[in-house]
Amino acid sequence: MGKMKAKRTSLYIRLAKLLMAGIVIAAAFFLLIQWASDRAIVYFLRETNYIQNASDRAASDLQEYITKNNLSSQDTTELTQWVRQQKVISIRVYKNEILVYDSNYPDEAVWDADAQGGYYSWESYYTLTFSDGKADIFLR
């Protein structure tokens, strides 16, 4: 009887060891796949200029929307509608380096606030033509 109990105990120990080994192997495999996929995504985004190309397309689409609907830089309702329909996170419109629209705060009257624009070298901006003149657009 004692021999049978020892055999059963050793089976439980073997099973526990195999289970632990499986967990360690699965965790190592997960970390390897996580690292490799992260590297692949970063490579794709940097080497193919995917983000820049997407921003260029969005700016072109926005210019087409502005022209088609004869929008001015103060037509905030229409600009907000466009942002919500697109895969663009947000836009800011600067006219003469003054913030006139920010899609993060679409209901704010920023035109009256006389907010000076912050041009950053790491942001892509585009000069688009509205019915009331040219304005700089920052896409995010």
Task: Report Rg.
Answer: 28 Å
Strand content: 15-25%
Number of helices: 3
Secondary-structure element sequence? HHHEEEEE
The strand order across the widest sheet is 3-2-1-5-4
Globally, the shape reads: rod-shaped
Largest sheet entry: 5 strands, antiparallel
Number of strands: 5
List the helices and strands and how they pair.
Layout: H1 2-47, H2 50-69, H3 76-85, E1 91-95, E2 98-102, E3 115-116, E4 125-130, E5 133-139
Antiparallel strand pairs: 1-2, 1-5, 2-3, 4-5
Describe this structure in words.
The structure is a single chain. The model has no long low-confidence stretch (mean pLDDT 86). This protein has a five-stranded antiparallel beta sheet, covered by helices on one side. The longest helix is centred in the N-terminal third of the chain and has 46 residues, at 2-47. It has helices at residues 2-47, 50-69, 76-85; strands at 91-95, 98-102, 115-116, 125-130, 133-139. 17% of the residues are buried. The protein is built from three helices and five strands; from the N terminus they run H-H-H-E-E-E-E-E. The chain is α+β, with helices and mostly antiparallel strands and 140 residues long. It is rod-shaped and about 95 Å long. It has two domains: 1-48; 50-139, no CATH class.
